[in-house]
Structures
1.
Amino acid sequence: MAETLKASHTVYNIRYHFVWIVKYRKDLIQGSLEKRLTNIFLGIRERYWFEIDIMATDGNHIHLFLGAAPRYSPAEIMKIIKSISARIIFQEFPEIKKELWGGEF
């Protein structure tokens, strides 16, 4: 259990469980791509002060259990994580874009 955090006018302990699936349920998240995604998520954690408790993948989907300050809505958190990670993955692994016909992760 994570500790209770304090901001200037709030005390909070918010946790979210996000699960998202690779388009067309393709088993693409393996090996070096999985390691790179982990590093990307850790970078996002540092930049936005998210507290990532659990990161896991099953090849075609990603689980993230994390905490964030109340100033971030769940939709904002997902937008941040998905946009940054997809941009980096498509730059570093161009073959992934070819696997996904629409070019969306």
Note: The beta strands are 5-6, 11-12, 15-21, 51-57, 61-67.
2.
Amino acid sequence: GIVVGHGTDTMGHTAAVLSFMVQDLPVPVVVVGSQRSSDRPSSDAARNLIHAVRTAARGDIAEVQICMFGPTSDQYGLLHRGTRCRKMHSSYRSTFRTVGDIPLAMVSEDFRYLTQDFRRRDPSREPRVDTSYEDRTTILYYYPGMKPDLVEALVEKGYRGIVIAGTGLGHVNKPLYPALKRAIEQGVHVVMTVQTLWGYAQMYVYDTGRDLLDIGVVPLDNMLPETALMKLGWVLGHTDDHTEVLRMMRESINHEITPREPHNGYLILQGGLPDTEDFIKGHWK
């Protein structure tokens, strides 16, 4: 297996793009870092590295994974799939969370696999390395009052792809429509994700979403915005043909789009609120 040391701030981006650039892995690739430096008594560096090396040496998941603390204590680490993981807290050691799915496994002295839906280690498998990448891509987190000239400036500067993290089910306000329409007509590839992180872009539900579909904005279901940005750059490194770009973006390579979210994939512990506790007791065995 392979261990990749990385800073935590952009670890999710790196794990995502590696998941596209290196496919059919024969062994685990484990991305690891620490939230707190090794000169601090509360550092998670050593424990994370131990878990990552153990995963690379003995783990059965031949995919790109992030290995970091599970709980805030050092009880165990979690292995997160590279395309479905995000840093969710600025300082907690348990900052990395799988979004829209469940983690792959727990790791301590041994492994507890939380799913069987992964590619297994097979040293005879030949990996495919494909590092083509177009960096003239960007992401727009929509906010109320966003001006159309932001989109126009990106087109003017030669950007080839735009990921929108839209509100609700994948929406932006109507003043942006003409700018997005012109961008698409000029060959810019525009895709939609949701800034809620959990859930799906379902643009056919409301007329605002349907209008964007008519313009040519393409929904990416429950792909995370940052994963979509990494994938769009990788796809545009291979083709600029609009039909092929959209086909590749909507074809799941490594679980960046999932057909459904598990009942225990969406858990936010709101300080032990009674209804949250009841939900967990009733659903998470």
Note: Helices lie at 11-21, 45-58, 148-156, 177-185, 207-215, 225-236, 242-250, 274-283.
